[in-house]
Write a structure and sequence with these properties.
globular, 11-stranded mixed β-sheet, 11 helices, single chain
Length: 353
């Protein structure tokens, strides 16, 4: 399997068009048959275990060379790969995309990303499978849902990561800012730094919490330099919350509320640490555009899952090349594309001679 996996992930990085079993077989001049590759894609042999095995050497290198004042973070986020024209199954179905606030037909996945210095690699990922039938009283129909929520997947991944990596903060958007997640991060000996909805309520003192006096974040007066020390419902310890006003590309203003269990942080530190969450957005973009995640015409849930995890492993290969050559993913992909164009041009000249 290892040989096939290496060839397939190299193929995903090299390709600029649809990635198929036939395409890889032709690239290898038939050294691997179409049927062999299709059987491998159908095996369902890939998962978070392989992600960790490939990421581990890169993480250990990053740990060895990081500065004394540097630290690692974990970032959790989910994304939907749109597949509007692919036949529906337990993976390719309708999912709520909270980043776009609408339902999207496609492949929904959750990733736990390790980030330290220049390195950002996935150490665990889960595909959302809607394979549990549930009777919907309102519509009087049977609908399919996942056996686990995204937050439950996160909790499983965090318990596994506890045995694998050292990190200081878990970063996430407001989707994952539940009291249960906050409690688990504390139990594992780490801090969290999450975004919060403006409607989230807090108490300004422990006495206020005991007496049930909670106020929505958007009603509070914030200091521009120092976050507020407050109490959340169902969270035992005090936390810090900050309010940040930013300008969007269309010149409109947005507001971001942050919460952290690390009460020693100031406003600037909270902002700087949370900005590291942006690495997961870069990861999603590179995964879809540089690792050919979106270019597979696979039809079954088994082949779609194998291709998905192979794309994540291809991304990790690209990240290793980034560290080695000090070039970004898109620059590396552009170099591969340019080399391919030159090879095709030389072949054209030879045919025309």
């Amino acid at each position: 399997m290892t040989c096939t996996l290496d060839l397939y992930t190299d193929y995903l990085l090299s390709s600029t068009g649809p990635t198929t079993a036939t395409g890889l077989s032709r690239l290898l001049n038939g050294a691997l048959s179409h049927d062999h590759i299709t059987r491998w894609l159908s095996s369902g042999a890939l998962g978070s275990t392989q992600l960790w095995q490939q990421a581990k050497p890169l993480i250990r290198q990053a740990e060895a060379r990081r500065a004394a004042d540097d630290f690692a973070v974990l970032v959790v986020d989910d994304s939907v790969l749109e597949k509007a024209h692919t036949d529906a199954n337990e993976l390719i179905c309708t999912h709520w995309d909270h980043s776009r606030q609408r339902y999207v037909k496609g492949l929904n996945f959750v990733t736990l990303l390790y980030q330290c210095g220049e390195l950002a690699v996935p150490i665990a990922a889960e595909l959302i499978r809607k394979n549990v039938p549930v009777w919907d009283v309102k519509s009087q129909t049977t609908k399919q849902q996942s056996a686990f929520t995204k937050n439950e997947y996160l909790q499983q991944m965090l318990r596994q990561a506890q045995q694998q990596v050292a990190y200081r903060y878990l970063l996430a958007d407001s989707w994952y800012a539940s009291a249960e997640n906050m409690a688990l991060v504390g139990q594992l000996g780490h801090h969290f730094l999450f975004a919060l909805e403006s409607s989230r309520t807090v108490a300004l003192s422990d006495a206020d919490r005991v007496q049930g006096r909670f106020r929505a974040l958007h009603t509070l007066a914030f200091d521009s330099e120092q976050p507020l020390r407050v109490y959340l419902r169902a969270v035992a310890e005090a936390v810090l919350v900050s309010r940040q006003v930013f300008t969007n590309q269309d010149q409109s203003q947005g507001v971001l509320y942050l919460v952290s269990s690390d009460t020693g942080l100031d406003q600037a530190q909270m902002t700087a640490i949370y900005q590291r969450r942006w690495k997961v957005e870069e990861y999603h973009k590179s995964l879809k555009q540089n690792a050919s995640m979106a270019r597979s015409p696979t039809k079954t849930s088994a082949t779609q899952a194998t291709h998905f995890f192979a794309a994540l492993l291809a991304y990790t290969k690209l990240e290793a090349l980034k560290i080695k050559h000090c070039l970004g993913h898109f620059r590396l992909k552009a170099q591969l594309y340019a080399a391919g164009l030159k090879a095709m041009y030389q072949q054209l000249l030879a045919l025309s001679a």
